[in-house]
Amino acid sequence: MKLLTHNMLTSTVKGVVNGFPLRIEVEKTLEKQVDFSADFLRNLFYKVDWKALVEAAQTMGYAELPEEAPDSTVLESEDFLKKFHYALLELHLEEGNLVCPETGRKFPVTKGIPNMLLHEDEV
Amino acid sequence: MSSKIARIDLVSSHPEVYEPCDDSFALVDALLSDRTNLLDFHPRLCMEVGCGSGYVITSLALMLGQETTGVHYIATDINPHALQVTSETLKAHGVHAELIQADIASGLEKRMAGLVDVIVVNPPYVPTPEDEVGQEGIASTWAGGENGRRVIDRILPVADRLLSHKGWLYMLFLTSNNPSEICLQMKDKGFSARIIVQRATEEENLLVIKFWRDSPVQADTNGMVTTTKTEPFMAMGSLGSLFSRLSFWRSDNSSC
Ligand SMILES: C[S@@+](CC[C@H](N)C(=O)[O-])C[C@H]1O[C@@H](n2cnc3c(N)ncnc32)[C@H](O)[C@@H]1O
């Protein structure tokens, strides 16, 4: 699971208000090389929740992203785009859990696939 | 350039996972026949709901290319074996999609609302007793309850929510799902519809319908707002007569 996907996932357990961002418990991470596309990254920049991405990357051992949400001028910086690319698309959570920030409910990630299914009494 | 799709001999399998069948082929044929439009459209985010063996999402990824051209793929299934098989199928073809075990798009609906450009679905569509829907095992891959609509009717509002303002939905139906009624319901949500592929096998009449939002307002990269032309909404009369014609068709190449 890429951090881009993590950035799109929320907990929908009954009673949860925001359910975002899911806290990451890491058991195993992977790096997978992805072709670089500046255009794709510039487009995504506006859709990503910056704080959630920075925290997720830090949990996964990558602390190179600026803490504060940068303004769009960084999109001209190759150095920035490379880091953004790495954190968002190349860093993968292979095994671990995604934890609901409000209920503590764990959504397991197995072989890179998060299980977002809820039990009947959680819907 | 020849259009590549997934190779059947490279599609992985599992006893509890739906194997590519006439419906899967019809859906991929529909995507192929619309490929030029898809390439012009240049979607960023493509999604499959109910990916099964991964045959369809792999074919779409091969057709449209990977991140180099800036396309990202996501596929969901409720069945964990299906995701495992899809992961193997993608790998065997050298393409990637993010896989999520979900009920339709559970967990994604909030943050991905309005972001998905293309959704493809071959749903469980076979009319069955209601209690067969969503059970464990292979039956859940096709069991659709009354008129085959139980899961379909839950997918349509989710697709509406997830699709971007210019988004497209390609969905497979049987004539017994009453697709003309579905088109009318989608029209109420602001979608136009067109049949892309129609195919009669021994047991079933399959249709792939493409839905898109009426006169979507597009913001281009300069922030200018432009209105794109859309194809006219298919007249219901001709849809109706097409369906009745289809039900008399018979072909002898049912093989699944
Ligand atoms: C007819 S099969 C299609 C499989 C594959 N896309 C193909 O075309 O060969 C339907 C798929 O939808 C999945 N499915 C059924 N109900 C679902 C749900 N509520 N959410 C997500 N997937 C579901 C089934 O597990 C099955 O893999």
TrEMBL record, chain A:
Belongs to the TRM112 family. GO terms for molecular function: protein heterodimerization activity. SUPFAM superfamilies: Trm112p-like. GO terms for biological process: rRNA (guanine-N7)-methylation; tRNA methylation. Interacts with TRM9. Coiled coil: none annotated. It holds the Pfam family Trm112p. It comes from Tripterygium wilfordii (Thunder God vine). The lineage of its organism: Eukaryota, Viridiplantae, Streptophyta, Embryophyta, Tracheophyta. This is Multifunctional methyltransferase subunit TRM112-like protein.
Automatic annotation (TrEMBL), chain B:
Transmembrane segments: none annotated. It comes from the Eukaryota. One of its GO terms (cellular component) is eRF1 methyltransferase complex. Residues 44-128 form the Methyltransferase small domain. The lineage of its organism: Eukaryota, Viridiplantae, Streptophyta, Embryophyta, Tracheophyta. Keywords: Methyltransferase, Nucleus, S-adenosyl-L-methionine, Transferase. This is HemK methyltransferase family member 2. It is found in: Nucleus. PANTHER family: METHYLTRANSFERASE N6AMT1. One of its GO terms (biological process) is methylation. It comes from Tripterygium wilfordii (Thunder God vine). PROSITE patterns: N6_MTASE. Its main location: nucleus. InterPro entries: DNA_methylase_N6_adenine_CS, Euk-Arch_PrmC-MTase, PrmC-related, SAM-dependent_MTases_sf, Small_mtfrase_dom. Belongs to the eukaryotic/archaeal PrmC-related family. One of its GO terms (molecular function) is nucleic acid binding.
